[in-house]
UniProtKB/TrEMBL annotation, chain A:
CDD domains the record matches: ETF_beta (cd01714)
Job of this protein: May play a role in a redox process involved in nitrogen fixation.
Source species of the chain: Azospirillum humicireducens
Listed SUPFAM superfamilies: Adenine nucleotide alpha hydrolases-like
GO molecular function: electron transfer activity
Domain Electron transfer flavoprotein alpha/beta-subunit N-terminal: 22-218
PROSITE patterns (alphabetical): ETF_BETA (PS01065)
Name of the protein in its database record: Protein FixA
From TrEMBL, chain B:
Cited PROSITE patterns: ETF_ALPHA
InterPro entries tied to this protein: DHS-like_NAD/FAD-binding_dom, ETF_a/b_N, ETF_a/FixB, ETF_alpha_N, ETF_asu_C, ETF_asu_C_CS, Rossmann-like_a/b/a_fold
Entry keyword Transcription: no
Cofactor note: Binds 1 FAD per dimer.
Domain Electron transfer flavoprotein alpha/beta-subunit N-terminal: 24-216
Pfam families (alphabetical): ETF, ETF_alpha
Cofactor: FAD
Top-level taxon of origin: Bacteria
Record family assignment: Belongs to the ETF alpha-subunit/FixB family.
UniProt name for this protein: Electron transfer flavoprotein subunit alpha/FixB family protein
Binding site for FAD: 266-267, 280-284, 297-304, 318
Species whose genome carries this gene: Azospirillum humicireducens
Length: 283, 359
């Protein structure tokens, strides 16, 4: 079994600040981390490795500094790591990114056929959730997104049974390898790496691949290969007025609560009516 | 054209053969006969875009042929569609990526819509990513605003990025269709008009179950479970870190019970294990649009704000008079949520003459 896990190095979005004057993102001092959603997928891949035996290759596309995220994944137990990096990839949107990553996965498959590709549910910087489905479609793999549980994996018959989150419930799906899986957040607890994996990760010689090496066509990556164009970036407009502050007769919780309810009912008479009707109906 | 610097080597003019693409489509999401409300919200939005472009609204309804599906086709017209593409096959009864993607690719290639909209749901995002790849076109995820650029008639799709700290507007200039997914509860629900008429085009795709690798073994509906239904709640009482400790969550649930409300939380509370992620409101959680949103002990981080700022009325309770949340809440109360929540519970209880005591 050969499992490829696609990860992305992202700025920790919780720590991003906007420059008050220029309205640009201030990246200085913002730590780069593995996209948190990717870790749930990496963990699931490592669990499959523990359970049924597999070689886990971790793949990322990004600038040379993304190497640190690959080493982190190696220290958690991934066997191999590939950094897909080339200035020609800069500016790729999700269509171009999934094409570039697919070219690298196909290159990996030439040596060792790929049975499962794991991707993060989405990234915390782009939030699109489009790269995983893009890769699955290009590879012709079965697509399993928002997976909450891998119930069963039978190597001999190449059958996999999973639970998939949908809006109205949970689907139990049975399909065949090869497939692309994205795990839902909170599906498993991310492990701490073992000491010997940590040492191996530090010594590991990364594979660094360029566009030429994977054979991805130049016109289909980077800005040229991206159908979408960012025409405007801006900071959300603050609401014109600030909150109307509620002032109570006395500084007691009861007086404040009473004043708050008066203010709510005054602003939303219909809501007050609905609530009273509901109470009268004994609900 | 009022557009920033154009990078070298990119196509910005729509090629001649793509100019015949017209109409605004919504892929109507239905699961076991139940339409997701985001599809109806999108029909209202598609109506506005189509009126600006002077074109028609198309709704694509996919599934196994049934009375439910016919009812949904009627709903689509009532909520704004001029044409319904009713695509039926037993293999489309349950959502699976492969048959849905294959069928949609073919229907789009045949009928050539210029804009295709889907809900940013588990189904919509799964399907949109696949279709955009087979059609090799642009897709903008999780939009919160859609408009038409007057100068070139292209779709301006605005979405939050970097966890909501920034918004960006994205266009697909030289490719068709232009695709976008839109968050549920962001667009207003249109009024249903039973007098509206429309045409139904029946499509029977060439699908064979034996060609479809993925099988649906079972479906466990949430209706039979006891999960939070935040997205559809009229009133939400939400808690943030200001509540101090997990035991104080009881105060939030007490008030919610008196109001018949749902309980929401911020992301740090989910991470701390105080609540499950089905209660998380915000960028990586649910977008909500209740009539009343009570935010207790929530500072107002942008990641939370983008999930709840469309609420009709936001009441914020915070000890810090300078908390960011007062910048976008409608009503502000400076005070200790731990004391005010029980007082609100009692006072609402009395006003609503609810006899049973909370707790």
């Amino acid at each position: 079994m050969h499992i490829v896990v696609c990860i992305k190095q992202v700025p920790d979005s919780a720590q991003i600040r906007i420059h008050p004057v220029t309205n640009t993102i201030m990246r200085q001092g913002v730590p780069a981390i593995i996209n948190p959603f990717d870790l749930f997928s990496l963990e699931e891949a490592l669990r499959l490795k523990d359970k049924v035996g597999a070689r886990v290759t971790v793949l990322t596309m990004g600038p040379p500094m993304a190497e640190t995220s690959l080493r982190k994944a190696l220290s958690l137990g991934a066997d191999d790591a590939v950094l897909l990096t080339d200035r020609k990839f800069a500016g790729s949107d999700t269509l171009a990114t999934s094409y570039a990553l697919t070219s690298a996965i196909q290159k990996l498959a030439e040596e060792d056929p790929v049975d499962i590709v794991f991707c993060g549910k989405q990234t915390v910087d782009g939030d699109t959730a489009q790269v995983g489905p893009g890769i699955a479609t290009r590879l012709g793999f079965e697509q399993l997104t928002y997976i909450t549980k891998i119930e069963d994996l039978d190597i001999a018959s190449r059958e996999i049974v999973v639970q998939r989150r949908s809006e109205g419930g949970v689907q139990v799906l049975k399909t065949k390898l090869p497939c692309m899986i994205t795990m839902l957040e909170g599906t498993n607890t991310i492990r701490f790496g073992k000491m010997d994996d940590l040492f191996r990760a530090a010594r590991y010689e990364l594979k660094t691949w360029s566009r030429d090496f994977t054979g991805a066509e130049e016109g289909r990556v980077g800005l040229k290969g991206s159908p979408t164009v960012v025409s405007k970036v801006f900071v959300p407009k603050p609401r014109a007025e600030k909150a109307k502050m509620i002032v109570a007769d006395a500084d007691t919780p009861d007086a404040m609560a009473a004043a708050a309810i008066d203010a709510i009912f005054a602003a939303q008479p219909k809501l007050a009516g609905d609530l009273l009707a509901r109470a009268a109906a004994g609900l | 054209m009022s557009e920033p610097s154009k990078p070298q080597g990119r196509k910005f003019q729509l090629p001649e053969h793509l100019k015949i693409y017209k109409n605004v489509w919504v892929i109507v999401e239905q699961e076991r006969g139940i339409v997701h409300s985001v599809s109806l919200e999108l029909l209202g939005e598609a109506r506005k875009l189509a009126d600006k472009l002077g074109v028609e609204v198309g709704a694509v309804v996919l599934g196994a042929d049934s009375p439910d599906l016919n009812r949904i086709c009627g709903d689509a017209i009532g909520y704004g569609a001029d044409i319904v593409y009713k695509v039926t096959d037993p293999a489309l009864a349950d959502y699976r990526t492969d048959p849905y993607c294959r069928v949609m690719t073919e229907v789009v290639n045949t009928h050539k819509p210029e804009i295709v909209l889907l809900g940013a749901t588990t189904l919509g995002r799964d399907l949109a990513g696949a279709i955009a790849t087979t059609l090799a076109t642009g897709l903008t995820a999780d939009c919160t605003e859609l408009d038409i650029y007057a100068d070139n008639r292209s779709l301006a799709a605005t979405r939050p990025t970097f966890g909501g700290t920034l918004l960006c507007t994205i266009q697909t200039l030289a490719y068709r269709p232009q695709m976008a997914t839109v968050r549920p509860r962001v667009m207003a629900m249109p009024e249903r008009d039973d007098a509206r008429t429309g045409r139904v085009i029946e499509i029977q795709p060439d699908l064979r179950e034996e060609d479809i690798v993925t099988k649906v073994l079972n479906f466990i509906a949430d209706r039979e479970q006891n999960e939070a239904q935040l997205a559809f709640a009229d009133i939400i009482v939400s808690a943030g870190k200001g509540l101090g400790k997990v035991e104080n969550m009881k105060l939030v649930f007490d008030l919610a019970r008196v109001l018949g409300a749902e309980v929401g939380v911020t992301r740090p509370l989910v991470q701390a294990g105080w609540a499950t992620n089905d209660r998380q409101v915000g960028q990586t959680g649910k977008t909500v649009r209740p009539k009343l949103y009570i935010a207790a002990g929530i500072s107002g981080a942008i990641q939370h704000r983008v999930g709840m700022e469309k609420s009709d009325l936001i009441l914020a309770i915070n000890t810090d008079p300078n908390a960011t949340i007062f910048d976008f809440a409608h009503l502000g109360l400076v005070g200790d949520a731990l004391k005010i929540l029980p007082a609100l519970t009692d006072a609402f209880g009395r006003r609503l003459s609810i006899n049973r005591m909370a707790g």
